[in-house]
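Example for tutorial group B:
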C-alpha cells in the first residue's frame, strides 16, 4: 500500500496493511543539535529527516497551491538592528522583536490589526478574485498521487489568524465590545475559503482539508465555548458542507493546548480530526471515550517521554496501543520534536514505534 492509501484508510475507519509511520516535524534547533550527535550534515530540514529515517511524515503531505489567508502577505522588513535582536515588520503586518539566532515566539511590539481602518488594509489582502492565489492544482494532485502521497487543502482559520493579526487581548476586547466587527472579519474569511474551494476542488481528488486554529492554552480555550459556538461553528459548517460536496470528508484541526471544551463545537461544525493533541494538556483517551468514532485522532505521543527516553518511551507507546487497535488514529509526536530530545532517544522511539504500534 502507498502512504496515501494507508492514510485514507485509517481516517475512514478501514484497515490498512499497517499504520502510516508519521511524525509532526522538528524545531530547527533540534536538527542542529542532532548534527553534533551523529545526524549527517546533509540532512537539514524536517522533510530531510523524515526521508532519512524512512518516515511518512506530516511535513511530506503536500498542500495544493491555494493561497488562503493574506495574499499577498505584507513585505517582511527589518526596521532596526538591536544587536542580538532585530525589530521587524513580519508577513502578517505586525511589528515584532526576534532574536537573530534560534527559533522562539516573537515579542510583539504592535499588532497590525487594531482598528477598523487597519481592517480595510487587511481586507484588500483577502481579495477573493486574485488569480495568483491558485496554482497548477491539477498537476500537483496528479504528481502527489503518482508518488503515493495524499494531498491537503488549506482550509484556513477563523479565530487563529485574527488572533495573530490582533493579539489575544485585542481580539478578546473586540469580541465583547464590537462583536459585529469580529463577525464581519470571520465572515470574510469564511467567504474566501468557500470561494477557493469552489474554484479549485471540482474534478480534483483532494484527500483532506487542513485547518489551523491555535486558540487554546494549557488550561482551556481563549474564547468561551458559548461565543465559539455562536460565532464560529455555523461558519465551520458552511465550509465543511462545501468541502463535502467535492468528496472531502476529513477535516484535520491543528490546535495546541487544552482543547476539550471546544471539541464538541468542532465536531458540530464538521471538523472531525484533532491534531496534534498535546498530552500535557489534552487527554486523548478521554476524547475517544467521550466522542467515540465521531472523532479522528492524529498525534498524542507525549514529547516528554522522548526526553526521558528508554522505559518512558516504551510506556508511552504501550499507553497508546489501545487507540491504534481501535482505529481512526495515527500516532505522531504531540508537537514538533524539541531540542531536549536527543538523537539517540528519537531513534529509539522510531525503532520501538515500528516494532510495537505500526
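The residue assignment follows.
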Amino acid at each position: 500500500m502507498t502512504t496515501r492509501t494507508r492514510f485514507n484508510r485509517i481516517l475512514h475507519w478501514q484497515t490498512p496493511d499497517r499504520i502510516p509511520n508519521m511524525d509532526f516535524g522538528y524545531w530547527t534547533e533540534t536538527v542542529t543539535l542532532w548534527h553534533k550527535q551523529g545526524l549527517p550534515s546533509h540532512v537539514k530540514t524536517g522533510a530531510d529527516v523524515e526521508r532519512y529515517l524512512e518516515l511518512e511524515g506530516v511535513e511530506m503531505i503536500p498542500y495544493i497551491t491555494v493561497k488562503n489567508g493574506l495574499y499577498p502577505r505584507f513585505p517582511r522588513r527589518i526596521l532596526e538592528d538591536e544587536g542580538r535582536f532585530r525589530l521587524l515588520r513580519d508577513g502578517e503586518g505586525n511589528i515584532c522583536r526576534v532574536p537573530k539566532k534560534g527559533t522562539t515566539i516573537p515579542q510583539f511590539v504592535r499588532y497590525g490589526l487594531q482598528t477598523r481602518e487597519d481592517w480595510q488594509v487587511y481586507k484588500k489582502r483577502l481579495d477573493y478574485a486574485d488569480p495568483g492565489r491558485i496554482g497548477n492544482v491539477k498537476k500537483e494532485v496528479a504528481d502527489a498521487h503518482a508518488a503515493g502521497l495524499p494531498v491537503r487543502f488549506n482550509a484556513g482559520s477563523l479565530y487563529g489568524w485574527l488572533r495573530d493579526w490582533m493579539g489575544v487581548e485585542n481580539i478578546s476586547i473586540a469580541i465583547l465590545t464590537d462583536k459585529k466587527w469580529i463577525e464581519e472579519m470571520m465572515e470574510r474569511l469564511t467567504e474566501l475559503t468557500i470561494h477557493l474551494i469552489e474554484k479549485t476542488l471540482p474534478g480534483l481528488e483532494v484527500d483532506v482539508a487542513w485547518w489551523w486554529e491555535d486558540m487554546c492554552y494549557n488550561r482551556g480555550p481563549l474564547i468561551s465555548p458559548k461565543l465559539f459556538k455562536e460565532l464560529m461553528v455555523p461558519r465551520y459548517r458552511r465550509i465543511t458542507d462545501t468541502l463535502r460536496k467535492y468528496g472531502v470528508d476529513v477535516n484535520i484541526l491543528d490546535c495546541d493546548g487544552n482543547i476539550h471544551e471546544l471539541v464538541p463545537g468542532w465536531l458540530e461544525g464538521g471538523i472531525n480530526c484533532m491534531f496534534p493533541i498535546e498530552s500535557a494538556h489534552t487527554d486523548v483517551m478521554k476524547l475517544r471515550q467521550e466522542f467515540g468514532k465521531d472523532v479522528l485522532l492524529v498525534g498524542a505521543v507525549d514529547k516528554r517521554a522522548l526526553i526521558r527516553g528508554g522505559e518512558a518511551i516504551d510506556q508511552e507507546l504501550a499507553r497508546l496501543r489501545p487507540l491504534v487497535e481501535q482505529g481512526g488514529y495515527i500516532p505522531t509526536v504531540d508537537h514538533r520534536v524539541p531540542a531536549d530530545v536527543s538523537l539517540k532517544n528519537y531513534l529509539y522511539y522510531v525503532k520501538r514505534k515500528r516494532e510495537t504500534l505500526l
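The chain has a mean pLDDT of 96. Compare this with the pattern of hydrophobic and polar residues in the output above.
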